[in-house]
Amino acid sequence: MAIALVTGASRGIGKATAILLAQSGYKVVVNYQRNKQAADEVISTIHAAGGEAIAIKADIADELQVMAMFVEIDNAFGPVTALVNNAGILFQQSTIEELTAERINCVLATNVTGYFLCCREAVKRMAIRYGGNGGAIVNVSSAASRLGAPGEYVDYAASKGAVDTLTTGLSVEVAAQGIRVNGVRPGFIYTEIHASGGEAGRVDRVKDLLPMKRGGQPEEVAQAIVWLLSDKASYVTGSFLDLAGGK
Ligand code: NAP
Description:
By secondary structure, the chain is α/β, with parallel strands linked by helices. The protein has a 7-stranded parallel beta sheet, with helices on both faces. 45% of the residues lie in helices and 15% in strands. It is globular, with a radius of gyration of 17 Å. Helix 1 runs parallel beside helix 2. The site of NADP nicotinamide-adenine-dinucleotide phosphate has 32 residues, from helix 1, strand 2 and helix 4.
């Protein structure tokens, strides 16, 4: 049975991915940090369509909470076979003069350390050397890892550069263990993350500058993630799919 953990699945890209995975037959774990009501609504949506899902509150930047979450999944569904490292944060748009160590470390703790911790716990359960049957991991990076997000959030962009390097290195490290590791790099997707940067309407501001002249929908990113996790992508590892309207 396919069992998927989607971090940060109470809204946005994670929510769309969790719903699509459930439609595709996965038992789904909807991880969230704060918004229990939103996570419960995702669970209700999945249940109403006949799918199986549970919600687990855990801060992915906290090692003990991540470890406890994986044990809870073991007990509820069995060991994960698919991981979507999706939960990510950014803060108010600014230039480098405004970046404090506290802010930078906070971004890195969630966007980088959190991804590492979830990969570690997933590999312990998926790897053939631990008695697992293999699995697949998709790390949600960003077009910002290529573009750098100048004047907006270079700290966030740098965290996504680290995610890309994690994806490349881990894909080789665990390839012989039956685990595929790939990345998606969304660009300008209509979600609430842009409000965290102080510009809720950011996608509409930049959309005319994109080759495709429009922003993307969370469901379009979810399709790529679910394909990369699936057996249809069985020979794909260490790859990146850009979902940025041609940018
Ligand atoms: P979003 O709408 O802001 O949703 C973020 C989700 O992450 C929420 O479910 C939130 O849960 C959860 N979360 C935040 N910090 C967490 C933590 N420490 N532990 C566990 N969960 C946490 O974001 P999104 O736009 O869907 O982005 C999803 C991913 O795509 C991120 O990695 C982001 O960097 C990437 N991305 C997005 C875009 C875009 O244009 N939207 C572009 C490129 C890349 P609570 O609500 O419970 O706090």
